[in-house]
Design goal:
Elements: H1 8-27, E1 34-39, H2 50-63, E2 67-70, H3 75-86, E3 90-95, H4 100-105, E4 116-119, H5 123-133, E5 137-141, H6 145-156, E6 161-164, H7 174-179, E7 188-191, H8 194-211
Parallel strand pairs: 1-2, 1-5, 2-3, 3-4, 5-6, 6-7
Helix pairs in contact: 2-3, 5-6
């Protein structure tokens, strides 16, 4: 049957199919943003609202359709993962362990609230590098030495970095560290409001994409 001989119903079907294909190609295959939440695995020194804010940020990442990335650990990243999963979000964890068994038995890390855990086998320092480089932006909440390591990797890689001030630990030291390091502020945003912080770093990602024609 030639194009002229097609019935109206066939033409409508072809049009609907073409529209469906365009919709699928524009929504399914374009990757979303991956936001890393970096923070203390032990939280006794963190601010009073640090856990609540971590959970809130995780939930908001999920609501916006982004992917949460964590170090597959306890503490603040765990609470962010909990918030994301309770909103139906996707959570990917990068473990320092080489196997699921080592993750649980050797490192004593949790499995819950994650869709995928990637077992890097590179201990904490190697895991931190893979974690930060796999993310489009990094949010720091409270933190200890490992969190500082993740921040400095992100800084060197020119990633958008969001620091939740008032959350205690490393996060409350970073402004002073960056200012005294004589390297400029990079793409670092300091904010006390967790939602405004997420807005700011997503804005930096979009600005970078626009500047590079993406």
């Amino acid at each position: 049957m030639t194009k002229k001989e097609q019935t109206p119903s066939q033409s409508e079907h072809d049009s609907e199919q073409a529209t469906k294909e365009r919709k699928i190609s524009s929504t399914v295959f374009r990757p979303t943003y991956k936001i890393c939440v970096s923070g203390a695995a032990e939280t006794g020194h963190c601010g009073d609202k640090a856990l609540e804010h971590a959970e809130l940020i995780g939930a908001e990442i999920a609501r916006r359709g982004y992917v949460l990335v964590t170090g597959a650990t306890t503490g603040l990243p765990y609470w962010a993962a909990k918030g994301a999963k309770e909103e139906g979000g996707v959570v990917i964890g990068f473990s320092p362990a080489s196997t699921r068994l080592a993750h649980v038995k050797t490192y004593r890390l949790p499995l819950d609230y994650h869709d995928i855990i990637i077992y890097t086998g590179f201990n904490y320092s190697g895991r931190n590098l893979i974690l930060t480089r796999s993310s489009d932006a990094i949010i720091t909440i409270c933190g200890r030495m490992g969190t500082l390591n993740e921040f400095t990797i992100g800084f060197e890689d020119k990633k958008p970095l969001g620091v939740l001030e008032g959350s205690g630990g490393t996060a409350d030291m970073l402004r002073d560290i960056v200012e005294k390091s004589h390297r400029g502020m990079g793409k670092t945003v300091f904010e006390k409001d967790p939602i405004k912080l997420l807005d700011a770093i997503v804005g930096l990602i979009k600005e970078e994409e626009k500047d590079n024609g993406l």
